[in-house]
Design goal:
143 residues, three-stranded antiparallel beta sheet, four-stranded antiparallel beta sheet, 7 strands, alpha+beta, single chain
C-alpha cells in the first residue's frame, strides 16, 4: 500500500466516522421544557402575579407523600373554585401528566404514585378562587 492509498483510506474512514456521528446525533431525543415556550414567556407577568397572590395567603398548600402507600395527598384550599395539579418530570416530558380539580371537590385529593417513575418530580399546583389565580410548586422524590 502506498501513501496515496493510505491517505484516501484515512479520508474515507474519517468521512464514515463523521457520517455515523451525524446519523447518531439526529436520532437522539431532545426534550424541550415546553412546546409553547415562547407563549409562556409572553404570559410570564401573569405567573408573577400568581406567585405574588400565593405569597399573600396565610395558609399554604399542604402536600404529603406516603411512600408505603404509594400515594401523594394534597389538602386543598377551601376557596378553590378550579385547579390543576401538574406532575412535571424534568428527565422525560412524556411522563408529565395533569390532574384537574373541579369546583366540587373534597378537601383532600389523593393521587396514586404506583405508576409514576421513581426519581425527581416537580409538582405544580395552580388554582383560582374565582377572583384571583394562585400558583405553588413543590418537589417530590418518588422512592
Amino acid at each position: 500500500m502506498n501513501w496515496g492509498k493510505s491517505i484516501v483510506l484515512v479520508f474515507v474512514l474519517f468521512a464514515g466516522f463523521i457520517g455515523g456521528m451525524v446519523f447518531w446525533m439526529t436520532r437522539q431525543r431532545v426534550d424541550l421544557v415546553r412546546e409553547d415556550y415562547y407563549q409562556n414567556e409572553m404570559e410570564y407577568q401573569q405567573q408573577i402575579d400568581r406567585l405574588s397572590n400565593t405569597a399573600k395567603l396565610t395558609t399554604s398548600l399542604d402536600m404529603t407523600y406516603e411512600p408505603n402507600q404509594q400515594e401523594v395527598a394534597f389538602v386543598l384550599p377551601q376557596a378553590l373554585r378550579k385547579g390543576e395539579i401538574t406532575f412535571y418530570r424534568p428527565a422525560d416530558r412524556q411522563q408529565d401528566f395533569r390532574v384537574r380539580i373541579p369546583a366540587e371537590h373534597p378537601n383532600r385529593k389523593v393521587i396514586s404514585t404506583a405508576r409514576m417513575a421513581k426519581g425527581y418530580w416537580k409538582v405544580q399546583f395552580s388554582w383560582s378562587d374565582g377572583r384571583q389565580e394562585f400558583f405553588s410548586e413543590k418537589e417530590l422524590f418518588i422512592q
